[in-house]
TrEMBL record:
Protein name according to UniProt: KaiC domain-containing protein
Key words, A-Z: ATP-binding, Nucleotide-binding
GO molecular function, one term: ATP binding
Gene3D superfamilies named among the record's database cross-references: P-loop containing nucleotide triphosphate hydrolases (3.40.50.300)
Domain KaiC: from-to ranges: 7-235
NCBIfam families recorded: KaiC_arch_3
Database matches in SUPFAM superfamilies: P-loop containing nucleoside triphosphate hydrolases
InterPro entries in alphabetical order: Circ_KaiC_arc (IPR022420), KaiC-like_dom (IPR014774), KaiC_dom (IPR010624), P-loop_NTPase (IPR027417)
Organism: Methanofollis fontis
Amino acid sequence: MTGDLDERVQFGIEGLDAMLGGGLLHRSICAIVGTYGTGKTTFALQFVYEGLARGEKAIFISLDERAEMIHDDIRRKGWDLDGYLGTSLYVVKLDPTDFTVAINQIRDELPRLIRNVGATRVVIDPISLFEGIFTDDAKRRQELYRFVEMMRDESCTLLLTSETLQNNPYASKYSLVEYMVDTVILLRYIRPSDLSEVHPAAEVVKMRGSNHSREIKPYEILKDRVQVYSEANVF
């Protein structure tokens, strides 16, 4: 990758890349925010696998599921894993309940790992578990800001996933990450007025430095891919 300001990093989800004006900006930071069941991890895995297919290297850091479960998720989609694991793809499980270890690994060891691997795509799933380590709001904001600023020095495009607030499907769990990243993709359920069926929908809420779609578009999680219908409407 050249690192040009206008260079695009594609998700490999055709409809979503169209909504993003061709993809994420190179070396930008994106957050996918959504309630449970909206497919945040699946979007993140497709982002990683698209990079692998393009000859890039990727790191997937899970704060929730074991590495073996992530491997199984990839294999169930019919994607080749054995050709990449340990050479182009590195899946790391961190324990957010161990405060000192989690902080040191994310703050100190992650930049070293990115450089040693040569990773151009990095995922943290979900960042809200890292935020939850801190019980003080001011400390949480300070540490998340430090982390985001640290990652801006790395030659990679960073994707974070975050749960939503329990009673607000439009905001991340701690209402912080969307203010600190460059791009926010919101995944949510839309229920028509007749209550007949729930439709998952994606929206690019924010994207610094680029034009983007402001429409809300339906999507579907298929066995082997995510499909965003950029030409369709949710109603």
